[in-house]
Amino acid sequence: MAHKKAGGSTRLGRDSNAQRLGIKLYGGEKAKVGDIIVRQRGTRYRAGDGCQIAKDDTLFAVKPGLVNYNKKKVKKFTGKLEFAQIVSIK
Predict the structure, then answer these.
(1) Is 46 exposed, middle or buried (0-12, 13-18, 19+ CB in 10 A)?
(2) What is the pLDDT of residue 76?
(3) Is residue 54 part of a domain?
(4) Is position 30 within any domain?
(5) How far is CA 34 from CA 38, 39, 68, 81, in A?
(6) pLDDT-based confidence at 89, cuts 50/70/90?
(7) What are the phi and psi torsion angles at 44 (to 5°)?
(8) From the centroid of its chain, how far is CA 31?
(9) Model confidence at 8: pLDDT above 80
(10) Bridge partners, residue 75, by sequence
(11) What is the mean pLDDT of residues 50-79?
(12) Is 2 contained in some domain?
């Protein structure tokens, strides 16, 4: 005789690891070469001067300086003008 009832399996209990996205360096903070400024999915923030975009859309510094965020009107693929957030190093 079994002394425990069969437990069976559950379909719950699995979850993916957090991706830790978001802004890593805010405006006015010092950035060294190679520092990650923003981790993102898609191009919510765009790369400006002193900043480049990685394969996974991460923005990183290519020169040392202060991080600067500003908005600029950009033409979208639909032809509509909208504000885009530009990240640059000054």
Answers:
(1) middle
(2) 87
(3) yes
(4) yes
(5) 12, 13, 16, 32
(6) very high
(7) -70, -40
(8) 16
(9) no
(10) 81
(11) 95
(12) no
